[in-house]
Every structure is written in C-alpha cells, then in structure tokens.
Amino acid sequence: MNTIRKRLAFLAVSSLVCLLLPAMPFFKYTRIYMVYGSSFVDFSYTVSALILILFLFEFNRLSFASLITENSIIHIRSTETVHSSEKKSGTVIITEATDIFVSCFGILLGSRIIKFNTKGIQLKKVEIDPDFINICYGKGARNDSIRLLHSTLNELELMDILEKFRHETGIDPVVME
Amino acid sequence: MYNILGVMEMIISRQRLSIIVFSLFFSWLLAFPFEGQILYSVTGYYGIDSTALSFGSIAAHFIGLSTCGFFIRSISAANRLMLFSMVVCIFGTSAFFFQPSMLWYVSIYVSALLSGACVAGWGYYFKRYTPSSERTKTAASVIIYSNVIMIILNIVAILISPFWGLSLSILMLATALFFQLRLNPDNEPDVSKVNLDGTNSVSLVKPLAFLCLFIVVITINSGLMYRVVNPAFAHLEWLVSWYWAIPYIIAIFIISNLPIKINRNYILYVAITMIGLSFISFMILDRSASSYIIIDTLMLGACGVYDLFWWSILGEMLNFHDNPARIMGIGLSANVLGVFIGGAIGSFIFGAVSSNSSVLAIIVVLITLMILPLLFSYLSLLLKNHVFLTTLNEMPPARQDETIEGFTRIDLLTERESEIASLLLKGKTYKVIAGELFLSENTIKTHVKNIYSKFNICNRAELIRLLMQKEDEYPPSQPKR
Predict the structure, then answer these.
(1) What ipTM was reported for this prediction?
(2) Which residues of B186-210 are buried (b: 16+ CB within 10 A; e: fewer)?
C-alpha cells in the first residue's frame, strides 16, 4: 500500500508543478516560454489535467486498498530480505517487504489489488492447506485463482479464519489435510 | 379478478388521457401566459411593454398553484375546476385578438391564476392514474409533448403571425377541454381498492419545505438565463424560437429512459457542472449562432435533468399525502418562485448594472451551485427517513423486528450483509451502523452497495418497498418460501 501512496504523492506533485509552473513570475524569462510562448502553457495545463485524471484513478485504488486492509481476514507478513554482495564489497541490497491482505472484498499484494465480492466478481472457493491458501474468484463462467503461501496456523487461528470467511463472504473454506 | 383487470385497463387508458390533457394544457401555458413567445410576439406587434403582463402573470400563476390545494380536496372538485379554468382561459386568451386595453391585464391575470390552480389540481389525476413506478416517465412524457407543441406554437407565432400562434394555442386549450370531458371521474367505478399505493397522510412539512428550497435554488438559474442569456441572442430570433427547448427535451428523454441501475445522483452533479460551463461559455464566446447552440445545449440540457429530477421526487411524495393538489401546487409554486427570483436578479443585473453583468450572473450561479449539493444530500436523507417512517411506523415493534429479520435472513445475503440490511431497514445511518458493528463507514457503504446490487435496486427506499411487498406476499401467518 505504501507503493500506491508514493505513486499518489508523485502524481499530486507533478500535477501541481505542471499547473503552477506557467504562473511563476520567473517563467516568462525562461527559454521555453520565449520559444513556445502560450502553446507551452496550454500544453502544461493539458498535462496537468491528464495527471489529475491518473491521480483520481490511483486515489480510487488507494481507497479500495484501505478497504481491504480495514477488513482483513488473513494478513500474511513477509519479511524484509537483505542481500550483501561479495563482488561489490559493502553493497547491501534490501528488498521491500510486501504484506498480503486477504479480505472479503479482495486481496492486496503490495500495490496489486485483486477484487472480488464487488462489481459482479464473485468469490467462488477458498481452500486452505498446511502451506497454501487457494482462492478462486471470477465473473460469471470465468474463473481465476491465486495461491498464497502462508505461515503455520494454529487451530485457533484457523477456526477464526474459517469463521470470518463464512460470516463475511458466505463461503465455507475447505480445509485440506 | 375480471373486474380488477377491466378496471386496470381503464386506468391505463385514463393515464394516457391524463397525459394528453395536461400536455396540451401545459403547451398553452408555456407558449402564452407563462413568459410565452406568443405573449411577447403579440405585445411586440402592438409595441407595448410586456413586463407588467409577464411578471403579473407569473405572480398570479404562483398564487393559483400554492392555494389550490387548500380549496380543492377531491378529484371531482379538481375535474370541475379544470373544466371551468379551461373555458375561462379560452375566453381570456381570445381577448388578445382585440386592441390592448385593461381587458388584457384582467384576462391574463385571471387565466394565469386559474391555470395555476389547474396544474395543481392535475395532481389528483397524476396520483390516481399513474403507478408510482411510472410517475417519472409520465412526467417526462408530459414535459416532452408540451414542449414540442410549444415549439410549434412559437415558430408559428414568429414566422407566420402572432395571431395564428394565438389561435393555435386556443385550439390546444379546446382540445384539452375535449379530452378532459372524457376524463370525468364521476363516471368511473371506485378504484381505491385497485390503487396499489398507500394513502397515508403523514406530516410532510420538513421534506416538502426542503424540496421547495431545492427547486427554488435550481430554477433561479433558469430565471437568470431568461433575463441574461436570451436577450444577448435576440438577434438570432429564428434559431432561438425553435432550438432553445431542444436540448431540454433531449435531456429529459435520455434521463427518463436510463436503466434503473444508473445512479441518478451522479447525473445531477453532471448537470451542475453543465450549468457552470454554460455561464462560463457565455462569458468567453461571441454571440454567433454556434455559440448560442453550445451555451443553450449546456444550459437547457442541465435544466432538463434538474426538472425531471425534482418532478420525480414530487411524484413520489404524492403517495404520502391525501391531497395531491396541495403537494403538486406547493412544489410547482417553488419552481415558479425560483424562475421569478432568477428573473428579478437577471433584470437587476442586466438592467441596472451595465458593466460586468456576466460576471455578476456567474457569481449568482456559482453560489447556487455550491448550495445545491448540500441541499440535495440533506433532502435525500429526509426522504429516506420519511419513506422508512411511513412504511414501518404503523407496525408494532415486535412485528417490525420479525418482518425485518425474516426479510434479511435469505440465501441471497451473507451474514454480514444481513446484519447490515437489518440495521438499514431500521432507519439507521451508515455512521451509526458502522459504530454498532465496529466497522468503518467505507466498509458499510461497500456492503450496502453489494446488497442493493443483489436485489437490483438503487436505494434504501426501494429496499423498504421490497420488504413491504414481501410482507404482503407472505404475512406472518403464512410460511415463507
């Protein structure tokens, strides 16, 4: 979700820059203005409007991501990985941790969102085995599925997850041995 | 059963008759006494100022609309009033064939007063002969037909002769009178048992007051347009005479035929944007024919959306009061008041303040557009609560709970959705539901959207109606499927 937030911030700043740049006092003295004149101003406003549209799309995604995290049934925490290279001594590479949230409205994998139980996309089947959770969803006859690796679940945690799925989605997950 | 079918068939044909009568009558009203082109053409022919006639006519129409409901208390009385009014209006309009005199003023004021009462009285027919689910379409049909006829009358008045226009408008009135005679409700059997809508008389003061305020704020822009925009394009007389109502008609046609799933609330906000853009365009563009087409399309398209929107709310409100003439009259008088206020503001801006009149007009428009969303959201809340009150308040509390639980515990909904639907049907707001279930408001809204989608409905009022229908199909003594 942090990726979505960062993307949103970037789009907001870009849009503001494109919008405000032509209004800056120094802008009239720049080479761009001298060469292109008011055409650049129109171009800048158009770009700003387009970025604003992208911002709105991204904002919707952030809202939906928030919805998923607020109604989380399963939260799979992944760990940060730190990799150091001998060849380039002292170089440390850190890959960002990607948390996975499964809720009654969809799945949030980092910045990727999979929606179900909304806009006609149904959650069709949930299977839980000792290592993976298989989630099958789709619209109409179409079926998509996703398989998530999860940490070991004790009995209480498993019962809690089963009850939440049943209560929130109406689906009874199948527990595989 | 056979009798009910026969009566239903009669109601359907009376629905059409009622549409025809009102469309013809309304076309005369729009073309002549209510700031009509024929009135302006006739006064222009004699070179007299139409301001006193026009404003006086609007004021008289307002009085007729707002007071009718206090005197007319049955459909029979409404029928007699409409017949009498149409005859008087025919004679009143005929006075304009003669030279200008005091007779003109008396005729038009009396005609406008009685026409206002007539329009309000039509509320009885609107309620009796049109089922709730068809009222928006009926209102749309009436508005479309009356505006099309009005355009024809206007074209005749401008291109041929004002007196030809006047003659045709009298013909419309006479035809309306003819069909009204066939609509005589004294000859029909008692259809009160066939009427599927309740006739509860529940206090509607607050929702009606807010609806009126909403209508006034919306129609201020229409009145402003008549006084500021139309005079600026007076040189395009031929184009203005027929094109100005076309976007209005098209907008109403489109909105009335939209699929039920589309959220009409968003369309309202689109219309608000169109009004703003139209006034901005009026400021920037020149006064050519293409500019007029752009400005008029935006403005009248938005007006069409607004008008059908509040007509549909007014139509729904008729279910909740025994005197539909009062509801129609008060609601429509708010429309007239809005046009009057907008016209007055426009006259002041255009007449007294010569410079920057367009800027001032835009300021007025922007203020109204800022107020509209707030009014609309509060009005929606009031109406939703009112629907809940009128449909469930007569049940004993235990039966209410049983009914709601029985309705929500069906296979279609998940347990969570059933919980939320129960609380929704008990009239609780999203915020309260979120508090009770320890969820966020956003989560509740998403669940509610899913619930509505499963039932193929758009709002809480329709959910309550479904609940009531199910209650009628399966009363507590009978087992549910």
Answers:
(1) 0.81
(2) eeeeebeeeeebeeeebebeebbeb
